[in-house]
Amino acid sequence: MGTMVEFQRPDGKAVQGYLAVPAQAPNAPAIVVIQEWWGLNDQIRGVADRLALAGFQALVPDLYRGKSTVEAEEAHHLMTALDFGDAAGQDITGAVQFMKTRAPKVGLTGFCMGGALTLLGVTQSPDIDAAVVWYGCPPLDYIDASKIKAPLQGHWATQDQFFAIDTVDGLEAKLTAAGVGFEFHRYLAHHAFANETAVGPSRTPATQFDPVWAQQAWDRTLHFFGKHLG
Question: 78 pairs with which residues across the strands?
Fold first, then answer.
């Protein structure tokens, strides 16, 4: 239900992205969606489509410039090659600015690697009106919490082997000290519990889709964005 579009970064470079728009509300509030380490694949396009069905415009910037994979080793290589500072300061900021030309308010959300980039991105762009992080966090030293002005929501898995739940304790302390408004939710689940493709023997070890927790997290996410972007 979406199409590929082009937008400009603050430095003038062009980036492609997948844009999904509600059929009945072309000027609806907007959300920038940041991919997992797999790239701009069908699953993350489906997230954008889901947001469009819920009444939001959704844009997924193509951080890997056309590359995607189903292999964990290659995904790790692509993620390692990504300049996180450039992605947060340029790609994400450009995506938010582009959506600001289409909507009065813009949110930011991301999953896994995209969750970490969401936390970095929200320190870079004052145009972000709300942000939702899904089980991803950069090293805490990289987060300047004093620059976060948007309200935050976070969804974390207590059995996450990629992002230890202890890190979330440290993140909460850092956000509280900076006076950031946030609400974090913890689920008795594994990493990628909201990714419906993380099932069966082909899934990455230590990931597991949980439809019950995923639905609750999605309900909380849509309510949060509805409150802050509506």
Answer: none
CA atoms of 176 and 173, how far apart (whole Å): 5
- Enter the pTM of the model: 0.98
- Pair of tokens at residue 38: 């797999």
**Which 3-state string (H, E, C) describes the chain?**
CCEEEEEECCCCCEEEEEEECCCCCCCCCEEEEECCCCECCHHHHHHHHHHHHCCCEEEEECCCCCCECCCHHHHHHHHHHCCHHHHHHHHHHHHHHHHHCCCCCEEEEEECHHHHHHHHHHHHCCCCCEEEEECCCCCHHHCCHHHCCCCEEEEEECCCCCCCHHHHHHHHHHHHHCCCCEEEEEECCCECCCCCCCCCCCCCCCECCCHHHHHHHHHHHHHHHHHHHC
Mention every residue, 6+ apart, whose C-beta is less than 8 A from residue 187.
155, 156, 157, 158, 193, 210, 213, 216, 217
DSSP 204: P
* Cα–Cα dist 12/36, whole Å: 25
| Terminal Cα distance for the chain, rounded | 22
Q: What is the pLDDT of residues 176-228, one digit of tens each?
A: 999 999 999 999 999 999 999 999 998 999 999 999 999 999 999 999 999 99
In contact, 56 and 24? CB cutoff 8 Å: no
Amino acid code (one letter) for 101: T
Q: CA gyration radius for the chain?
A: 16
For 52-98, the DSSP string reads: HHTT-EEEEE-TTTT-B-S-HHHHHHHHHHS-HHHIIIIIIHHHHHH
